Amino acid sequence: MTSGRGGALLVVGDAITDIVARHGTPLVPGTDTAAAIRTLPGGAGANVACWAASWGCRDVRFLGRVGADSAAWHEEALTRAGVRPRLVVDSEAPTGTVICVVDGGDGGGAERTFLTDSGASLRLSVADWSPALLDGVGWLHLSGYLFFATPSRGVAEAALAAARARGVPVSVDPASAGFLAELGVERFLAAVDGVDVLLPSEGELRLLAGVADVGGLAEAAAKLSRQFPVVVVKRGAAGALAAREGEVRAEVPALPAAARDSTGAGDAFTGAFLASRLSDAGLCEALAEGCRAGARAVELVGGRPV
Questions:
Q1: CA 156/CA 256 separation, integer angstroms
Q2: Of 78, 138, 249, 276, which cross-links 286 as Cys (Cβ 3.0–4.6 Å)?
Q3: Which residues touch 186 (CB under 8 Å, ≥6 apart)?
Q4: Does residue 105 carry a pLDDT above 90?
Q5: SS (H, E, C) 42-64
Q6: Where are the alpha helices (DSSP H) in the chain?
């Protein structure tokens, strides 16, 4: 697999409005819980693009679909982050919104729970795609959320096919264990056949590999790497590992961090990992850069670098 050095990174995925609610005491049903609430630009695909740009990737492009209600706001936020956005404005559906409920109390680990309304993001369709979008591109990254709805799955598959025809490496982040289970593992794996790098979380990995054993992480990664050239497993506070050709080839620890909000930490890892690979970093070095970005991300509120 070529590194794609010298070309742009094109991310196709979701731009979402995040409403982040950090609560310092346990949620109590039926009454009020005090929280610090912020409205921020987010979305897994858009977050990856922003982190890649912040990690030194000089040409990052993003394709996504948003509603007219906040198109200008999202375009400005992406441009300010160093990303070249191509946003399709949907006249019928609003921009997708995610309510991120973050446990900011002692011992909560800044863990987040999402309430997701995908809105316009999963209405991205083949009509919004052109193979010309790959001109000058050295790497294509597809947000896994695209595969969970028929219109956006069509554009993801078209982009993947076009990239493969040009010899452009492709990566996919499976994005959501819950949505994966709903879609079906076999259906997802068929849709992403031909991808060069798969970047699952631990939960997504176990689901995709069919390995439920808590101690079978290496086994699961090795198994999946017989189907995909490289499998990179994001493990949060446990670091990351990578498998290739049926064996775990690299493993790196996480960096210490004072966690405030884990929203977007996996996207930060992915963005830094891809930026590093595009600059010709080795697999272990790219894993370490991903963990460094993830540690920085959890110390911020929201899913984007600042």
A1: 36
A2: 276
A3: none
A4: no
A5: ECHHHHHHHHHHHCCCCCEEEEE
A6: 44-54, 71-80, 150-166, 177-183, 185-191, 202-209, 217-224, 265-278, 283-298
